[in-house]
Amino acid sequence: MHANKTSPAKQKEGRDISVDMYPFIRKYKDGSIERFLRSPFVLASPDQGGNRGVATRDVVVDKATGVSVRLFLPSRAADTAGRNRLPLVIYVHGGSFCTESAFGRTYHRYATSLAASAGALVVSVEYRLAPEFPRPAAYDDAWAALQWAASSSDPWLNEFLDEGWKDSSRKTRAGKTAVGKCFGPLGKRRIFVFTESDDDDTKTSHNG
């Protein structure tokens, strides 16, 4: 994650600050919001060759809210086509619920690495950010992504997922952040991975 060049002491001329959470966000009294931590946007691509052998695709999972996910499909899927052997990872990016994006370079790279290393189909959630969308919006969006995945309506999910990913006897859960706690009741899903809510974009917590 990268901060822009705005100084922590500098504010836009003629605008009063109401909330200053530098280096994350700054909210002005006129209601406008300035975000500092952001990574460059990365386009999804079906080409596995240029992305560590991982194809990516964006899907809108809730038309009412516009919430979407980015799917990460490793090259291993080519060897398992028709046999449904890939596990599923639902991934919720870090950023304290107010910064960053599943489509930004930081978390695109992380999810790519996760898919390639684990040989799993990763669903990375592009949830709505606070303060424009305060909690529980992010939780609702993560739920929407999970419900979409459970419906198995997507062709990648239908073709490549392990048939037992919904089996409670084969579950693995990970996470201890607020988002992780949100998924506590979802004991009948196979794998969850959540980042810590800090600026370490490579850290994960595991609580099996």
UniProtKB/TrEMBL annotation:
Domain Alpha/beta hydrolase fold-3: start-end pairs: 89-156
Transmembrane segments: none
InterPro entries: AB_hydrolase_3, AB_hydrolase_fold, Carboxylest/Gibb_receptor
GO MF, one annotated term: hydrolase activity
One Pfam short name: Abhydrolase_3
Protein name, as recorded: Alpha/beta hydrolase fold-3 domain-containing protein
